[in-house]
Request: fold
Amino acid sequence: MSESTEKKMVRLRSSDGEVFEVEESVAKVAKTLQDMLEEDCADAVIPITCVRAPILTKVIDYCKDQVMISSSSSTTNNPNERTEQERKAWGQKFMEGVDSSTLCELLVASNFLNIEGLLNLGVDKMVSMIQGKYPQEIRDMFNVVNDFTPEEEEEIRNQNAWAFERDPYYKKRSSSK
Amino acid sequence: MALPGTWVAKEKRRTRRLKIAMQRVRVSSDYLPAKRLGDSQICLVPKFRISAGPGAATAPSWEVESSDGTLLQPIIPGLPDHVALNCLVRVPVENHSVCRAVCRTWRSLFYTKQRFFTWRKILGFHSPWLFLLALESWSGKLQGLLLNLSCPSTWHPVPPIPSKRRLEARSFGCAAIPQEGTLFLCGGMMSDEDCPLDIVLKFEMLKNRWTVVKPMPAARSFFAARKIGSYIYAAGGKSSDVRELNSAQVFDIAKEDWQPIVDMRVAMPSYDSAVLDGKLLVTEGWIWPFMFAPRGQVYDPKIDRWEMMAEGLCEGWTGPSVLLYDHLFVIPEHEEMKLKVYYSETDTWDTVEGNPMPEQISKPFSVNACDSNIFVVGKNLHVALGKVEKQPFSASGSERKRLHTFSVKWQAVPAPESFRGWTPSNSLVHE
Reply:
């Protein structure tokens, strides 16, 4: 895949106007950018219109890491190669401290740029954030509006839970956010 | 739910939209509005590429209207619905009742299991469950339990069986339609008296309910019941006067109706049965003190005929069986429960290489399989999960010709203490 020894740089502009210069290999982790670069987009600044600078920074961090792993994975005994467990731990660490609104933006960015790995990390994070929460906590987290009528709410309360389900209303639990 | 044709059309439209959008990106950013959190839809929709199998490529779009025509809010504000949907279909079932109560949009996904699992399927997820009928330790009553095979942790009870009669373990027939999550429980013997039954009960997992369907024409217990195609075959067993039966019937699943098929060659109860190459295999199993070799019969539904079973197959069938890689595997009740596999080319059985069965598993046990995994449920409902691998056969050191051999790796999935004393009867896999 290496065309020249000189590292080709690519410039990306976030929605709020900040320009990032990254190596082409890093940009190419994003399939959307890869497709564009292969169709030769020359030296223009690529606008990433739905991604703000802080999110783009995080995305670039992810891409850089992916390049670091894959660049040395062809050689045997690669010190950077990760086991399944290490990858999981790394992913968890990468997503640590990401709040729900940042997560949504990260998901939008990785979906737009088509970065499968990051998208998967985001989805897993989202699921882990939902787990063990109560309806109001979920609404608060994701800005979802409670649009039930009182009758509908009553009906849901009375619906028999399926075999596995926790009771959404009556059990007390210590919250862990 | 939209028809597949419309999905394709939508997908095409989406791809075209994407292409146009991508061209815009290259020219100028001004065409694309910057999206903030809270915006409902993002018009750029590159195909969602989560590694979830072939279904993901043709995902239909999520309806934005509720049944009464009112516009629903986005699943998660700020996220394209298909991304949000891909998150929510991964939420474990324990949290569904909570998710259902979040808002109307979420309710429309989580309201029925049917809808939830349909979406999972559309997005290419595979969600197998193990259904087990087990005898409760304290009451001796038969109870249905489910184990989520994607992340097995504990058994979850399903509603009680709608029958006051107490059934003896393994006396009834059980057949499943794994793709639909439906199973049938037929006949059986009451545990407190010598009385076989003709009842047929249907359990639908997605609806989480039991229904009573048309009974069998003859009461039978300890018989063979297996699904082949869209039919369930019930053969042999013991009749009301505890005589052995040679009659057999077929149940049309769609019509829910029983019809007779040709009689078995000899009247025989069934210890175990299996379906191999589209034929129903029935064995009476070894009976203490193991003086005589067991009898076995094979039914071919294509020509409606019974044959006696090959000797090697019948003699080596020493435990509950399971079908994997189109081969019959048996966990012997004796012989230290070492998994063995049948080769029809040579009519012989071979022990499968691998670590021993986890020691938690003790008799009586029930066996089933899904993909390349075997699930053995033992007493106290501990589970052994066996990953079976197929290798090409290396010819060295043996003259016997076969295409491949198998190996197994066992792993224990202990059940919670609360299932101590429970006894497994029949298990089935739902996909």
Chain B touches chain A through 56 residues (CB under 8 Å). The CA atoms of residues 318 and 332 of chain B lie 5 Å apart. The helical segments of chain B are 4-27, 81-88, 96-100, 104-110, 113-122, 311-316. The radius of gyration of chain B is 25 Å.
